[in-house]
Amino acid sequence: MKRLKIVALTAVLGILALVVRVNAQDPAEGEQIFKNNCAACHNTNAETLVGPGLQGVSQRRPIDWIVKWVHNPQAVIASGDKYANDLYNKFNKAQMTPYPGYSEAQIKSVVAYIDAQAAPATPQAGAAPAGGTQAAPAAGASNGGMMEYILVALLLVMVLVLVALLSIVTTLSKLASVDPESEAAQNVPFLQRLAENGKKLAGNNAFKTGAALLITLLIGKATIDAAYGVGIHQGYAPEQPIQFSHKLHAGQYQINCNYCHTGVYKGKGANVPSANICMNCHNAIKRESPEIQKIYRAIEKDEPIQWVRVHNLPDLAYFNHSQHTNVGGLECKNCHGEIEKMEVVEQRSSLTMGWCIDCHRKTDVNAKGNAYYDKLVEIHNKDHKEPLKVQNIGGLECSKCHY
Fold first, then answer.
1. What pTM was computed for the model?
2. What is the pLDDT of residues 4-60, one digit of tens each?
């Protein structure tokens, strides 16, 4: 009898644990899912975007209905559900993408996140700003210590120019053998005197040496400046085959970067979106637009849209998006600037090696909640007072970025 009670109690506890697990709601997880998959078509408030605003959705429909709808909206419509069919017809029969891979608990977390947006939380004192913990490197950040060398070189140039000017002044003093107030000087025209002094000055060895040195320094500086500019395309904003506004999509409609650039959090590259991603919305929105018609023609011809790449690193450099966005917790604007404000995307950062190294020297390692770094942080803190930086974990090693 005692054994049966223990077995029964164990079974009840297991069922309770399962119920708790199924009904668990994590608004933070729901926010991530919503922004990655839903924000392109829905607002968390009552305002209509591509689809209806989702404010109060948990009051409008039971959670079981919402789970079925997210898993397979077409099946709910085909079942004859009146609410589903009214919604389908109201939005011009635009098909919602099904998400059968999300569990019931994850869908409930999304609903919990939507409900939480109806009552904005008061920010806590000292709380970090939303959207990442890392600050973008300042536009005027030092280029790997190179600025110090440039300043020293400019100082030397100024000293040499000063020496040359003193030499010129000395020469002019020697040439002034005639008193400008004398009668002989007054009878000589000013231009004639200037020409004669110019000839004498041009024949002076000290002046010629100083002038040659100054010209050599100016040419050398121009050459170095040009060499440093090779391969740098800061400000590059090419014309695209289709006029796509990031200010409208990422700014006004707040579509998450991950919706179009699907590899930004999980791949080496962010990926250029294919035409079928555009058609998730534009099969029903602004179909008559001449720019949208270009997408239709590309699909009809089964040809890719020839987007012009804006940000491009040389083949000798290795860069992994997921390491920076997913592991490091950096936002896209850390490197790309405020994309959500750009009508036409341009390269805002220099993307040079010095720019990357400077970031590695200043950026703290995002070690919170990642057991991989626990031992490294412990060892680092024994000998250092400042936080663990990327440079402390090999961020300045050549082989990190070069094959």
1. 0.54
2. 344 344 444 444 444 444 445 788 888 888 887 888 788 888 888 778 888 888 888
∠ CA(379), CA(137), CA(264), 5° rounding?
85
DSSP 16-83: HHHHHHHH---HHHHHHHIIIIITTT--SSS--SSS---TTHHHHS-HHHHHHHHH-HHHHHHTT-HH
How far apart CA 163 and CA 11 sit, in angstroms, is 94
CA dist., res. 50 & res. 287, Å (int): 13
* SS3 state of residue 389: strand
- Cβ burial, residue 119 (10 Å; 0-12/13-18/19+): exposed
321: nearest Cα among 376, 387, 258: 258
In the block, which residue shows the tokens 């987007």? 307
DSSP 391: G
Two tokens at 254?
A: 């707040």
**Cα 157 from chain centroid (whole Å):** 38
Show Cβ contacts of residue 34 under 8 Å, excluding neighbours closer than 6 positions.
44, 110, 113, 114
